[in-house]
Write a structure and sequence with these properties.
There is one protein chain. The chain has 424 residues and is of the alpha/beta class. It contains 18 helices and seven strands. It has helices at residues 9-22, 39-52, 72-78, 83-87, 91-100, 113-128, 145-155, 199-210, 216-226, 230-240, 251-260, 264-275, 281-288, 292-304, 320-330, 379-384, 401-404, 419-423, and strands at 27-33, 56-60, 133-137, 162-169, 189-193, 308-311, 314-317. The strands form two sheets. Strands 2-3-4-1-5 form a five-stranded parallel β-sheet, sandwiched between helices. Helix 11 (251-260) crosses helix 15 (320-330), helix 12 (264-275) packs across helix 13 and helix 12 (264-275) packs across helix 15 (320-330). It is globular and about 65 Å long.
Length: 424
Amino acid sequence: MAAGVVSRDAECAAVARFLDAATREPSSLLIEGEAGIGKTTIWLAGVEQARERDFHVLATRPAQTESVLSYVALADLLSRVDATVLDSLPHPQRLALDRVLLRGDAGDAPTDPRAVAAAFLSVIETLAEVGPVLIGIDDLQWLDPSSAAAVAFTARRLSGAVGVITAMRSDASPALDLFRDRLPRPESSRRLVVGPLSLGALRTIVARRLGLSLPRPTMVRIHDISRGNPFYALQLAYSSVDGEISMQTTLSDLVRARVSEVGTETREALLAAACAGSPTIDLIARAMSVTHSRVAEILDEAEDHKLIHYEGHRVRFSHPLLAAGIHADARRPGADACTPRSPVSSPSQSCGPDTSPCRLPSQTNRRCTPWTPRRCRRPTEARLAPPQSCSIWPSASVATLPSVISGQPDITCTPRTSTKQRRG
């Protein structure tokens, strides 16, 4: 069984069979289940197994905050493709991808969606001539429409050793499955439904992730309340250290309690991270108007409380619900935190000349007003943005925590790298 995966023998076997098939013909595997059930854990294990089998892996993990940005997921998929492959494309396709990747001077002409899709297909075909290719998309429900169109175009025309592994919440629209009935052979599309874990499996996860060995009656109660959902069980186990577990304890209460354990400055840093689609120490430092080293020190507390971890230069929440909970709590009447009036963005994601970072509560004596998207004014960004805006936060579509919890998003078991090691 892959590292980080607990009591998922059948699921791991299904992933292995999918990878075997992908070495022969275009194949897809959709990992589906309620939020919090462990889809991302299995997806990550599949991606890692593909790398061990010498697949060329193109992967993206879309975020809700980035779903309004055009081609952002496609840019992630292409980010590890060698420049010589991109430069070998026909001129119209190369120019289209230059615009998607924001490379060089792309001129003033609008981006042609068909040229983008054809270019992505050409890249996949070129890589497949050398060895098997895996396209990995986690949280398919947050894939931006422009990238989805390019990926669907490619799926219908795939040939050779190409696999596509995706993960999606079971309450998402079936229409979001971009590969069902689109591959050359429909029977090559597989679906894997992830179910709840047993009491013994939850005990193992609690011991590994939290270092806790709880009495059996406590674990039985946690299993009954969580119904085998590993993320919910972890939050219950974490809270059980301080007292009796209530049957009325909601997941939103547990997440709020977790975040409240850190200091005000740390919560401000976490709010800045929650407002950014791809938070980094640099973006958080700009939002808080402090140095990079100070942000690293602040985030040490969040890391010690297992609220965040690092993936390269990115700051990632240990679970998407933590980010959703922080942002939702900031929008509650009477909350201390506030919604930034401008998005925390990188230059490539900026809508216009005004890219000043947001001001957080400790830096102003007046309450921030809710931020609303601005029309794109920069020519290059305007060509790539959806018609309504290219804002980081869609106006009126920020999910509150209760609406997210129709089941709690999946556990992500990523190796932890300490901030102190990163600074060393």
